[in-house]
Amino acid sequence: MKILLIAVLALSLALNVFLGREVARQRNELEAARASATEVAELQQQIQELQKKPAAPADSADANALELARLRNEVSQLRKQTGDIATLRAQAAEAAQLRGRLAAATQDLAKAEIQLAQLVKISPEELQQAKSEAQAIACTSNLKQIGLAARIYAADHNGVFPPDFISMKNELNSPKILFCPGDATAVRVGDWSQLDPNLISYRFLNPGGNESDPTKQLTTCPIHGHVGLSDGSVQRKQ
What percentage of the chain has pLDDT greater than the value 70? Predict the structure, then answer.
């Protein structure tokens, strides 16, 4: 548990470093946006001053053409910079949302650190009891999934349950479901071709049966004593 607590603390530190870098990056982008805004304002002022000047004499037509071309180029740059500013503002808004999410994540990590610190302080007996309870709950879940798989199999085979666990491999997500979490000797494999039927934790009690008697035992766990019934429910041993 201490190792887990250290890992959570390291993750919290990494998030804080990331947040600092993100804030610095957004600050640089906002400063660039302000500089662009200043430049835009200067260009607008120059255009206004040029528009106020009186019409030039006819002999300065070439100079006016060049000045007009320059103004058009400045207007094009002005429009581009205005678009860039809008993009930067959108990025700044997104960064603000990111900072909010990071702040919330940091708070969640802080709570997790406190909970882990409290968990580390519990006695070995209490820790073992909590672990055993979690394994018993996971075992119940496995039996429910097996019961559901058996009923799906029966629906496709004239209402008859499979003869064994292996026959339900198309209805089960993984062979790991066939192993009780409390089975210390289990070799949990993820591939059906590697599964040894003799090592399966659970027992199949109603091979080739049906749902005519919903209360008939279908599966059982020798470790916890839980019993799966033919209707898909599970009776958990207290």
Answer: 66
